[in-house]
Amino acid sequence: MFEIVFLGTSASAPSVHRGLSAQVVMHDEYRFLIDCGEGTQRQILQSGIGFKRLNRVLITHGHLDHILGLAGLLSTFMRWETIEKLEIYGGQWALERVHDLIYGIVLRGAKPPMDLQLLQIQAGTIFAEGDFSITAFPVWHRGPDCFGFLFEEKPRRPFLPKQAEALNIPMGPWRRDLVDGKPVTLPDGRTIHPEQVLGPERPGTRLVHIGDVGRTDELMEVCRGADTLIIEATYLQEEAEMAERFAHLTARQAAELALRAGVSHLILTHISRRYRERDVLSEAQAVFPNTFVARDFDAFQIHRGECVKVQREAEA
Ligand SMILES: [Zn+2]
Ligand SMILES: [Zn+2]
Q1: Which residues have CB less than 5 Å away from ligand 2 (the ion)?
Q2: Cβ contacts of residue 112 below 8 Å, gap of 6+?
Q3: Ligand 2 centre distance from Cα of residue 55 (Å)
Q4: Per-residue pLDDT tens for 127-161?
Q5: In degrees rounded to 5, what are phi and psi of residue 10?
Q6: Is the pLDDT of residue 202 over 70?
Q7: Which of 37, 112, 251, 258 could cross-link with 288 by S-S, CB 3.0 to 4.6 Å?
Q8: Span of 163-172, 256-265, 305-314 with lowest mean pLDDT
Q9: CA-to-CA distance for 103 and 100, rounded, in angstroms?
């Protein structure tokens, strides 16, 4: 299961109701801040997420509405909050800009307040720990080295309690080892192999996050069958020409991608203040009914085939 909290959902400039691009994807104890538009740290506080363990940032691309918040965040870490390590992942162009911002403006010769690493990414797996991985893939937008991110749980074989009952396997560590794929020797001397109590392999949850993008044809493969696709919808179809000129999508184009790729759910973000939210939603839903338009502080839990909007408890 992945959880995503939207911290900022506005395109290019903030509106009264929407901050600039930022979202947090969580899985077990892992947290990834994706993009960090201006004002993100206040959204982090207001969302109740807090700064703890927020030590990995993924940057989709180098446009200012996606990175300026890093300066304020670093500044806060210099005075108020402590964190041991901060990893910022991005393409070359984005990282050059982030480097200028952090080392040229914020630090200016001072030591970073933590072990700070700027990690340049290329298409492929950029993170794999525990039972999931993150794969970066190229997306077409203004400027080079723009990336989308696929969060993917490893496939799993479910434990079959009825089989375990039938084999008289006691509760306790034996069952846990079998779930982990290890053969066990029971107190009565029998050896049980995982195949005896595990069902057929099931694919893990897949969450695709795509920031600013102007073309969808090459995204079909990575999106195919995803449980949730999060993608920008900066324009409506009536301004499709503008969308093309600035390398953004219309709500309808985003919905058409969701439909053709056979995803389960679609969440639209990067919403322009020139439109009403309900117009964005209805344009997309006419093509792909399982669509949400994200608002700041919306949280969703994403399971296999499911995407549920949830109320988050504030974390201490
Ligand atoms: Zn943007
Ligand atoms: Zn952009």
Answers
A1: 63, 212
A2: 74, 86, 102
A3: 23
A4: 999 999 999 999 999 999 999 999 999 998 889 99
A5: -95, 150
A6: yes
A7: 258
A8: 305-314
A9: 5
Catalytic residue among 35, 65, 145, 298: 65
pLDDT at 3 (0 to 100): 98
Say which ligand is closest to the CA of 233. Answer: 1
Spatial distance between the Cα atoms of 131 and 247, rounded to a whole number of angstroms: 35
Provide mean pLDDT across the span 152-174.
92
pLDDT class for 172, splitting at 50, 70, 90? confident
In this prediction, residue 316 has a pLDDT band, given cuts at 50, 70 and 90, of very low
Extract the tokens encoding 138: 């190229």
Q: Look up 65 and say whether it is catalytic.
A: yes
Query: Rounded to an integer, what distance in angstroms lies between the CA atom of residue 89 and that of residue 95?
Result: 8
Q: Which ligand is nearest to the CA of 21?
A: 1
Going by pLDDT thresholds of 50, 70 and 90, the confidence category of residue 82 is confident
